[in-house]
Amino acid sequence: MIINFSCQGGFANLQIAFSVDTSELSESLSQELIDLVERSHFFELQLQQAAPKFSGPPDVFVYELTIQDANKSRAIACNDVTAPPALRPLLARLQKLALEQSSNSD
Predict the structure, then answer these.
(1) Do 25 and 97 contact (CB within 8 A), yes or no?
(2) CA–CA dist 70, 53 (Å, integer)
(3) What range defines the domain where residue 69 resides?
(4) Do residues 90 and 36 lie in contact, with contact meaning Cβ atoms separated by under 8 Å?
(5) What is the DSSP secondary structure assignment for residue 44, as one 8-state letter?
(6) Whole-number Å distance between alpha carbons of 77 and 58
(7) pLDDT tens digits, 24-68
(8) Which of 59, 61, 71, 98 has the fewest Cβ atoms nearer than 10 Å?
(9) Positive or negative, the Cα torsion across 64, 67, 68, 72?
């Protein structure tokens, strides 16, 4: 599974990204991400297309997420307000991984 994630916004105008092929991760982290994708029902999510991704309070985070798995691929954009509840644990974990990667590269 290939995951491309970006997050921007918030009070500090954070801009982070995280891209990974789960086959290149440790077995435990790979399985954790795959489980989060499956529990979020990412490929079946029904997002409100009419809601702009930047709607909401000025301090929200905006997320862009693309996942490729076997012969499926999907890209979505949402924010803290428009993200479906089932997707939020995956977004939070990816945001944490992106922050860890960003702090390790400094």
Answers:
(1) no
(2) 27
(3) 2-104
(4) yes
(5) G
(6) 16
(7) 999 999 999 999 999 999 999 887 544 455 556 778 899 999 999
(8) 71
(9) negative
What pTM was estimated for this model as a whole?
A: 0.88
Burial class of residue 87, CB neighbours in 10 A (0-12, 13-18, 19+)? buried
Tokens of 16: 């982070």
Angle at 29 between CA 24 and CA 31, to 5 degrees: 95
Alpha helices by DSSP H, listed for the chain, are 27-40, 88-104
Domains: count for the chain = 1
Q: Report the DSSP beta bridge partners of residue 101.
A: none
Query: Is residue 30 within 8 Å of residue 22, measured between CB atoms?
Result: yes
Structure tokens given for 63? 């997320």
Token pair, residue 60, equals 């929200």
